[in-house]
Amino acid sequence: MDSRKIAKYMLWADDQARRLLEGLSEEEFSRDVLPPFGSIRSLCEHIILATEFNLKRQVDKEELDPKQFMEEISTVPKDRLLEMWRKADTRLIDFAKSRTDETYVFRNFLHEGKITLDQEDYLSQYLLHTQHHRAQIMSALRVMRKEAVTTDYLFYLSDIQ
Fold this sequence. Notes:
single chain; Four Helix Bundle (Hemerythrin (Met), subunit A); mainly alpha; 7 helices
């Protein structure tokens, strides 16, 4: 699997979601509709936090206080939050375009200790993680009786033809 190609697909799919979210009011965007995250806003914040925190920490080798960053993004208007999400996607694409033999150490969430990821596994984590939350966003839109879209890979391939 070519992670650069998949990263471009993710940007396309997330753009489809963001296009729909632009049409929501701030109240709809923040409405508690889907456990455990509650609102579409919370899902977007989570996507941005996970992606930016780990890119800063793992790739840029910079410290980012996740609590402080979450406080910052929780107060921005919806349109700015959607821009931040797109920027995080773009950073992932830039990372996918680079080729590195570097490894990235993460906490093992199922057992004691740490796990080490290569670049492909690192990218796969965030591409699949975002896909999971994008599907939750589509479900939340459907619960709200709003338009939702299919972002299957075949739709992407059809669209770019």
